[in-house]
């Protein structure tokens, strides 16, 4: 029975069989063809037998192994590699079917490769998970054909693996590299001109072309007989808190990723850059009640705490309580901090309901309210309207778009910093704001 489960006929065999049946039908009209048909039938049976023997004479004709990271990155392309070894004495053609996690909803992951004798072939492909959690990979199925190609043998390798999908640490590493090199503009990161000298003094160093003449240290210049300048660095140990709304407004998906996951990925990037700049990073999550409170620190292991915390966050389905958030911030955060609030407002009325609590927070902290542009509405607004129904829909979309912009103006009116951004630009725009605040010395 094991042999039967592993044996499959190929399309070449079916075509050959169909041709033989056609020849037998013609033999009813032309009896001389019966002899030819019998010979061809015997040849086909012999070839199938030889093909089967060549494939089944060993139990270890091929070997396959899946290679992937210990954890995957949510919302990013993750590399998966399948290593395929040919132990046969002849080249083989292999169709590989990898059993992917159900969360990906992919059923067409089939790879057809040719592997020479005694060699190893690497199959590399990418997956993009859009939900955090544990993903279970199943077996690797390899369907092997010899050069004759009449039958196939199925090998199944029980490569069952469970891999957690964490917030996008791949994106975190990309922005970490660019935030500290000259490649800032590649992902939209901007250099902001420093206003005044609110930064901390670092050292006195020789003048280099391009330095601001206002920072020349004339006393050091006189002593060294060469131009010397004062060097400044960003102020350190400034607390940066990400306040993540987990209410129902953050459940909305864009490009298969929920707004909560966009906020979580941006939080991880911002926290990592803040820690690299010697600031302290903390997190508060809330919905109808306050969830997790992680105090701002800058210890070596703090980033791992942040990653583990963000991994377990889930959207709740009640309206978020900003009054509880205000009470928690006033109780838990004693020093002036940068508060980056990730939430979403669809109407001006919804924003005005929470405005009193945000205004109170702004008395004690520098607050940046980040909410999302509806990119589906933007697509509708950019498309031409040709029918009455399309004009009606476009008018409604313009109303919602106008309200989003009004929310920004309303926040600015009361001295609050607001950022309206498309979901896919959230990380870049949030990081730009943080770097701007650092350069302007607002903290």
Task: State the gist of this model.
The chain contains 12 helices and 21 strands. By secondary structure, the protein is of the alpha/beta class. It starts with a helix and ends with a helix.
Task: Outline the fold blueprint.
Blueprint: H1 2-6, E1 7-9, H2 11-29, H3 33-56, E2 62-67, E3 72-73, E4 78-86, E5 92-98, E6 110-115, E7 120-127, E8 133-137, E9 140-145, E10 151-157, E11 161-166, H4 169-179, E12 200-206, H5 218-224, E13 228-233, E14 239-245, E15 253-254, E16 257-258, H6 259-276, E17 280-286, E18 290-297, H7 302-311, H8 322-332, E19 338-342, H9 348-364, E20 366-372, H10 375-382, H11 388-413, E21 417-421, H12 426-440
Parallel strand pairs: 3-11, 14-17, 14-19, 19-20, 20-21
Antiparallel strand pairs: 1-10, 2-4, 4-7, 5-6, 5-9, 8-11, 9-10, 12-13, 15-16, 17-18
Helix pairs in contact: 2-3, 4-6, 6-7, 6-12, 8-9, 9-11, 10-11
